[in-house]
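FORM 12-B: Structure-to-Sequence Request
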């Protein structure tokens, strides 16, 4: 990947850049990139949004890291792939498509669909390709409250299996990732978080991200606020005991696997709890990731989009080592058709906004 200096925004303060153009316009996605990149610790995440806690030093790094400020999909596509997406590539550039499933019963017991992200991280750790991975576990204090961690053992990776569906500021861990001196790191995140890392790479911001080796993107139609979805809707309105929830999934409706059985809720009822900033994102499938993973209506399997040479090496290595079983995707597969439809829908929603 060549350095893309055109992504640089120059020196500009937080108030003139992100506060005015991202926060006030409702485009913030609470990713934490601006906070992690600030060398002066001027910013703090408060109620899911960054705010100044001391005088801004006008370094401009927060603007260079933010995926909602001065973002260019075409520039970053060229940076990552050396070309732009074609019209017949509705879900971005890729090398290979597959449906896959983890082979480890412990992963399948806890995972979302096929457990592919968990299996890939497990393989990469055991093979020595990475020394850790940024992923999302659940808080011990609040059920299904996302807690980003730097997982360095199989047990920690397994703790991160399964979707949380509420906003998680994974990029806050970049300061911790930047301290890694003797190993490579995998990063698992939503499309907006992948965009932020690619933007930092293209801008030459190396300190916090130099050790990140592979980016695993999770398909996303939008994240919900924990206070809205979990506290107000599920616990408050629907009287669900959050401690009884074992798994959450979205397949045309919100599905909760609980100790009392399966509970279903219509998506129309929870749409109002989606984070406002998600409406500014046109990327459903994590188009700038090395590998993108999602459920797409599959049961017990995950859909994988292998986009880069790094992603291909990781996926094929995991399959050959027996961590994954995979099947090829054929034209006309329902999951493939759904991927195209959801990708186009998200792009059109942004264009209409």
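FORM 12-B RESPONSE
SEQUENCE OUT:
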């Amino acid at each position: 990947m060549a350095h893309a200096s055109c992504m640089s925004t120059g020196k500009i303060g937080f108030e003139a850049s992100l506060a005015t153009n991202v926060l006030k316009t409702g485009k913030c996605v609470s990713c934490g990139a601006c906070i992690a990149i600030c060398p002066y610790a001027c910013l703090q995440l408060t109620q899911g949004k960054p705010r100044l806690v001391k005088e801004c030093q006008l370094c401009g790094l927060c603007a260079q890291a933010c995926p909602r400020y001065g973002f260019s999909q075409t520039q970053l596509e060229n940076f990552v792939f050396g070309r732009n997406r074609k019209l017949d590539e509705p879900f971005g550039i890729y090398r290979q498509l597959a449906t896959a499933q983890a082979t480890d019963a412990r992963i399948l017991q806890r995972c979302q669909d096929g457990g592919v992200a968990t299996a890939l991280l497990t393989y990469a750790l055991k093979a020595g390709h990475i020394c850790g991975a940024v992923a999302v576990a659940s808080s011990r204090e609040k059920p299904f409250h996302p807690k980003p961690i730097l997982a360095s053992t199989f047990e920690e990776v397994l703790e991160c299996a399964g979707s949380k569906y509420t906003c998680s500021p994974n990029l806050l861990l970049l300061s911790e990732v930047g301290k890694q001196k003797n190993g490579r790191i995998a990063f698992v995140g939503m499309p907006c978080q992948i965009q932020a890392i690619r933007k930092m790479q293209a801008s030459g911001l190396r300190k916090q991200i130099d050790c990140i080796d592979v980016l695993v993107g999770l398909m996303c139609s939008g994240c919900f606020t924990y206070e809205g979805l979990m506290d107000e809707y599920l616990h408050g309105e629907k009287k669900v005991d959050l401690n009884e929830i074992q798994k959450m999934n979205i397949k045309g409706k919100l599905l909760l696997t609980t100790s009392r059985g399966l509970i279903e809720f219509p998506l129309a009822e929870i749409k109002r709890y989606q984070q406002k900033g998600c409406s500014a994102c046109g990327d459903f499938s994590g188009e700038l990731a090395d590998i993108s993973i999602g459920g797409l209506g599959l049961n017990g399997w995950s859909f994988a989009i292998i986009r880069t040479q790094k992603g291909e090496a990781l996926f094929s290595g995991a399959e050959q080592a027996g961590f994954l079983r995979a099947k090829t995707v054929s034209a006309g597969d329902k999951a493939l058709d759904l991927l195209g439809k959801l990708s186009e829908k998200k792009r059109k929603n942004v264009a209409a906004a």
